Amino acid sequence: MAMAAAVLEEALRWGGGSVGDDNVAARRAEEAAIRRHEAASWLRKTVGIVCAKDLPEEPSEEEFQLGLRNGIVLCNALNKVQPGAIPKIVGVQSDTAVPADGSALCAYQYFENLRNFVVVIQDFGLPTFEVSDLEKGGKSVRIVDCVLALKSFSESKKTGRQAACKYGGILKPLVSGNYFILKNCDAFMNKNARIHTEEATLNGFRGEQNLSLDCSPESYEITSDNLSTIIRTILLDKKPEEIPLIVESLLNKVIQEYELRFANQNLMDEEKQNNLTTKEEASFAVNGSNAAQKFHLKAEINFDLQHKQIKGLRGTVSSIKSGMEQLKLHYSEEFTKLGKHLYTISNAASGYHKVLEENRKLYNQIQDLKGNIRVYCRVRPFLPGQISSLSSVAGMEERTITIMTPTKYGKDGNKSFTFNKVFGPAATQDEVFSDMQPLIRSVLDGFNVCIFAYGQTGSGKTYTMSGPKVLTEESLGVNYKALNDLFNLQAQRKGTIDYDISVQMIEIYNEQVRDLLQDSGNRRLEIKNTSQKGLAVPDASIVPVTSTSDVVELMNQGQKNRAVGSTAINDRSSRSHSCLTVHVQGRDLTSGTVLRGCMHLVDLAGSERVDKSEVVGDRLKEAQYINKSLSALGDVIASLSQKNTHVPYRNSKLTQLLQDSLGGQAKTLMFVHISPELDAAGETISTLKFAERVASVELGAAKQNKEGSEIRELKEQIASLKAALAKKEGEPENILSTRSSPSIYRIRKGNATPATPKDRQPMEEVGSLEVQNVFTPAQKRSKMHLLGILTENNSSNSVQNCNVPQKEIGLGGWVDKMALGDNHFENSNSILELEPDTAQLPTSFYHQRYSPVQQSCRTESVPSLGLHGFDSATSCSNQEIVVSTMGLKASGVANRGASTVKKYEATSTRSTNLASKSPLLQKKLQTPTRNRNQLTSSTIGGRRTPNGKIGIAK
Ligand SMILES: Nc1ncnc2c1ncn2[C@@H]1O[C@H](COP(=O)(O)OP(=O)(O)OP(=O)(O)O)[C@@H](O)[C@H]1O
């Protein structure tokens, strides 16, 4: 459009020049001269004129007319462009050379040449001129146009581009893409083109549209030059006053044409894209004379095209739809298949898990049967402050852990260890607990259990056993979770078994045993090694617990009393071994069977390299004690794994405490802890080696501590008789043995109230009171009757051989409960309180208490009681029981003693009958008396049971 505007502007100026503008006239003349020169040059070049004087290089108008007047140059040029176009040129003799003087020929002959030329030019559709234009005063400009058109035609022929037909004129640069394509445009190609255009212009383009559009490949380009020529041609003969009107009309026309062509161009592109058939194109060309028709046609074509496109789109949509349907179908089939596959896999997986679970159970059973110490390994995560760091743990599986070793430990730099279970750094407290839950639960079934945490300092023992410093529900350690679980089971079994649960908490600090549930923690305790069916227990406070909050409270108190110090490795390093002992006693409400279990939960102090932990002073002393006791534990383990007959349990308080747990009385689990740091690899390897040795120790199957009601009653009667007899005989050793019984403090929910010395009374004092009250004459008769039977049968050890692993003296236990109720114990604390110092008496002291003479005396006076079956500790505790009971009665509950007595009478009779009727029992009662060592060593085994009852740990 810019181009057209420029051309028209120029045309206006050009036309406007006729209004008297000299400059324009001069410019017009100049332009005409340039064009003439261009035409003459081309002709000279084409026909080979080198120095023809009648057609100079830059001819004037007249020279131009004269030079071409004979038509020979024109015809020759035409023949050059289109050979043979004019077969005969008048005046040319034998060659195409122009005759030196054209005047020799007559005007008629020359006219012949010009006529032939014009006819051919017309046939070519190029602009022509009149013969008169070659005369002086004729319009030489037409001849120039014609020649330049021929030149353009020739050039386009040469280049093979028909489209580039220029009609001469000054070349102006083309605006890229802004040229139009015309085909045989009437306005330009017909011989009447000029006239038509003129008419159309003059009529205000009321007539036929002469500028036709064609899109065929043979179209010509219209450039600004062409347009300029066209406009000039149109305006050539116009009066100056007509020119603005014509230009305006032309401008409108050009704009319309431009718009139409622009639209058509786009359409053409679309059509091209959609492969319009040649036929459609032809029909378009044929019918396209009228712009409206063309437009209509194009609209129709467009519509058809769009219709086709829509159709095509519809087709595509429907094919996509059907494709989607197929895909959907395909996917749903795939999903179904996948579902089935998943189902099979999940079945297989659950089957696999079942098998795994089964395997685990079987494995545990084998472990139980073999009595192996179970070993679980736990890896502590890196601590938040550690800029870590390389881990020494090279790999972990369900049961195997591989450690990167310093070269001295393994050739390939890795060493693997296998345990019952390995817990990685990400294992939660719940996961850890759930794996050991069945073991813990077996306490309620009458088994002894010992779980101890071992590992170098800072490796996470306290975390596993108790939890972190700040406790949350998730982070509660094994101790809390274990008791919580026991309480849950206790509640679940309420209707069938009546459980009593109580706890003790001690620490071994610098080889001294301390009661953590006592505020002072100063009282030094002894660990009672029962060496028989129970676990070695300290004679520390035993506190009944009924809920987790009780335990939390107690343990908080215990932890407060525990020795903790800061070292370079752990800012809260436990400087002592702590042991939470849980006592469980259950009575089957239907059968009367008593189950008794005991569980040690031990958090050992960590082994440490004093150079690393950088300890000095007290810390160093503690570390030395810790290392010494752990090395004693190592000796015990080494001895056990080598199946030595002598096991050095007595080398430390720790091994004394664990003696029963490591000696076959318990199901034992060691939790070995390791730190992940690479620089701890040395300690880790030695810890794991130790743990492997522990895992190899076979203790034999642990037994259930269960006793039937009848046997229990028998034992109760025997115990009471024995006690009464002993009391009656007033042996001084009874007093001694009473003094040696464990210190028993009553603490309610952490409110430890140890009895003051003022409250304490020697038991023998009240005991002497009780002797007269405890048995009625009828009881005494009954007792004598039983004694007689037992003596007659010379029975002893009977109960032990009846496989009664642990004995609770019913008189002290159940009778207390029945006759006196719990309140009684609250009141009786002070009475039961013993001299704290007695606990510190050396073991030899206890050994001495039963001199051979005394022993024989006991054996004489009591042999026929058959008490030895319960172990000599029973005799000690029996006395305590009597004393205690006497004490209780002396405290003002004598009335209720009647019911107690009744029970004794009844059970005595029953037992008598049983004893006389049962050959098996009688036979068992004949088992020889146990040796003195057994007696003496176990006389310190008496202890108070959870409810304040007094029992004997065996
Ligand atoms: N599994 C764990 N997850 C998160 N933190 C842990 C874990 N185990 C231990 N820790 C953290 O590591 C630090 C040391 O743990 P802990 O005191 O239990 O070690 P320890 O073996 O009892 O040490 P020591 O023998 O010196 O008493 C503590 O800050 C503890 O909270």
UniProtKB/TrEMBL annotation:
Residues 904-954 are annotated as: Disordered. GO terms for molecular function: actin binding; ATP binding; ATP hydrolysis activity; microtubule binding; minus-end-directed microtubule motor activity. GO terms for cellular component: actin cytoskeleton; microtubule; microtubule cytoskeleton. InterPro entries: CH_dom, CH_dom_sf, Kinesin-like_fam, Kinesin_motor_dom, Kinesin_motor_dom_sf, P-loop_NTPase. Residues 906-916, 924-940 have a biased composition (Polar residues). One of its GO terms (biological process) is microtubule-based process. Residues 704-731 form a coiled coil. It comes from the Eukaryota. ATP binds at G455, Q456, T457, G458, S459, G460, K461, T462. This is p-loop nucleoside triphosphate hydrolase superfamily protein with CH (Calponin Homology) domain. It comes from Zea mays (Maize). The gene is LOC100194298.
